[in-house]
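Lecture 7 notes: from sequence to structure.
We start with the chain below.
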Amino acid sequence: MPSKEFSIRGVIPNLITPFTPDGNIAWDAVRREAAYLDGSGVDGISIGAFMSQTAGLTPEELFRLCEMVRKLARKPLLCTILPDSEPEAILLLEAVTNAGADAVLVAQPHYLFQPDTSSLMSMFERLQARTRVPILLANLLGSALVGLPAMRRLIDGGFIDGILQGGGNGHLLVDLLRLRPRVPVFSGLEDLHYVGLLLGAEGLISDLAALFPAECAGLYRDFLGGNHEKARKRHERLLRLWRVMDHSVEQLARLRFALSLQGRDAGAARSPFTELSAEAARHVTETLEREGVSRQLRRQ
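Predicted C-alpha cells for the same chain:
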C-alpha cells in the first residue's frame, strides 16, 4: 500500500510552457499563464508534461520553473519528471521538491530500452526514500507503457502513491480502476476524462484542461453533483475541441495556436515543432469559434 498520503483530487491542467522564438523559456509569459490557470476554477497545476516540452530541461531550469509557479499559484503544484536514468531522476526529483512541488510524477526511463519490473521497483523505492512528498507513476508514453502486473507490484510494495494513466491506452485505465485495493488514479486520456470519472478516477491531469480549464472544471463539478446530462454535454463539446488538436505532426503548434486564439501567450513550440499549416490554423479557428470559445473569451 502507498507510503504517503496523496489527497489531491480533481482537475489539474498541464501548464503549456511558453517559449521565446529562440527556444528559451519566456518567464513573463509563464507568470501570466500560471496566474490564469490558478484563477480558472481548477484544483491544481502540473508542470513538466510531454506537451509542455520540458523534457531535457536541466535541474536548474526545472527548479526555476517550479519555483516560479509555486510562488504564483494558490493551488497544489505537481511536477512531472521524465528521466532517462535513476541518477537523472534523483537530480530532477530534488530540484522540484526543493522548489516546492506538492507531489512528483515520475515517468519510467524509456530511452532506447525499458527497465524490468524489479529494477523499476528498486528505482521507485529509492526515490521514495529521498522525499517526503508523494510520488506518482506517470504512465504516459504510448511506446513504453508500464503494464498492469508491474503497476500492481509497485502499488503492493508501497513504492508509488498514485498513477497518472495516459499513453492512449484506455484498457489500462479501466483495469487500474478495477484493482482493489488501489492508489489514486488520474486520467491522462484527453478524450476519455468523463469516462474515467464515471469509472472511479480521482481526477484528470491533462493538456485539455490547460487549453480549456474552466470547461474541464465544470465537467468535474457536474460529475460530482450528479448532473450527468450536463456533464455529458460538456464532454461532447470538449471532445469536439480535442479532435482538432489531436494531430500526429502539428499537435504542439495547434495547442499553442489555440491558446493564442483565447488571448493567452504560450509562444511558439520549440523547434523543430513550430510549423502550423494554413489549413490547420483555419480548422482550429473555425472549431473554437463554432464552439463559442473565442467569442466567450472576447466577451470576458
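Points to note: Confidence is low (pLDDT under 50) at residues 296-300. The chain has 13 helices and eight strands.
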